[in-house]
Amino acid sequence: MLGTLAISVMVAAVLVTAWYLLFSRYNRKRSIEVLRWLESALGTQGQLVSVQWLTPSRFFVPLRLKSAAFQRASVLVELAPRELPFHWLLSRWRRQKDSAVICADLEAAPTMNLDLYGHRWSARTQRRLPMDINRWTVDQPIPLVLTSRGDWELTAMMNSLLTTPHRDFLELNIRRHSPHVRARVALETLAPDSPSRSHVFRVLGELAAGASTSRP
Question: Which tens digit of pLDDT belongs to each residue from 96-105?
Answer without folding.
Answer: 888 999 999 9
